[in-house]
Write a structure and sequence with these properties.
Elements: E1 7-12, E2 19-24, E3 35-39, H1 45-55, H2 58-64, H3 74-85, E4 94-101, E5 107-114, H4 129-132, H5 135-139, H6 143-150, H7 155-173, E6 179-186, H8 195-208, E7 216-219, H9 225-230, E8 233-235, E9 240-243, H10 246-286
Parallel strand pairs: 6-7
Antiparallel strand pairs: 1-2, 3-4, 4-5, 5-6, 7-9, 8-9
Helix pairs in contact: 1-3
Protein name: N-acetyltransferase domain-containing protein
Domain N-acetyltransferase: 183-234
Organism: Clathrospora elynae
Length: 287
Amino acid sequence: MSQPKAAFIKIPTDKTGGFQTMPVEPEKRLSESDIRIELCTEKDVEKIAEGLYACFPEVWWNMKEPLSLRPPEQSTRVQRMAKRLLPSFTNPHMNWVKAVLTSTGEMVGVAGWLGPGNKGIHNIFLRSAIDYYGWKETMGWTDEEIDEMWEHVSDEAWNVEFAKDDEIRRELMGEEPHWFLAPLLTWPEYQGRGVGKRLLDWAFVQADSTVPVTPLYLESAPTARAVYMHCGFVPQGAVNMVRRGPAVVKGLEAEDEKKKKHDAQKGSLEKVSVEVVAKEAEADLSG
C-alpha cells in the first residue's frame, strides 16, 4: 500500500491569493464531512476583516498600513476594513464563500470570488471601487466617512499596487468573462488541513458547469505556483495564473503519469543491464 502524501500549510505572501507551502502531517487534514461550504452574509463581514489581519503576515501589513498611520486600537482597523468590504455584498457577482466546521459552525476559511458578468475589471479592495461601483450613494457615505476609512492606508502600497494588478489582468483576460479570486484565507490553526482546496472546489464547480467552461484567474506568489498548477492553473507571468477547466488538470496528471512510467521503465532497463553485466563478469571469472 502506498504511503499518504504530506499535506501543506498555506501561508499568505505578498499577493492576494498567494501562498508559500510548508509540509503538514496527513492525519491532521480534515475529512470532507468535517467542513461545510456556505455563502457568507453581511453578518460575516467583520469576521472576514479579522481573517485578513490574522492570515496575511505583519510584514505585508506594515507596507499596506504603515505603523505611523495606524490607529492605536486593532479593533479600529478591523472595523474600517469591514466597513470598506460591506458594500461588496450588494454586488450580485461577488461571492464571499466560507468554510465552516460542521460540528460548531465556526468559520475557518473564506474566499472572495468575483464572478463573470461583473462590471469590467476593478478590484473591490481599491478605494476607487467606491466611485466605480457607486457605493458612496448605495451606502449613504459622506466624504468624511470615506476619508476616515482610508486614512491609515498607504495609497502607493495599496491602491497603486492593486491598480497595477488590475491592469495586468485586463491585458491578459481582455473582455473574456472569468472568475477572479481575491482573497483566499484559511485561519492559521486550520491551514494545511484541506480548507483552502474546498474553497477552490466551490468555484471549480461553478466554472466547469458552463459550456464552454469559464476561466478562473488569480495572482500567486512563486512559492505557491505548484499548488495552483496541481489544481489546473497555468502560469501567465510572474504571479498571474489562469485555469481553463478540468481538462488542464487531466493533462498535467497525464504528463506526470507518463514521466513516472518513463522513469520506471528506465529503472527496469538499468536493473536488467546491471544483472547482465554481473552474469557476464561471473562467467568470465569462472572461465
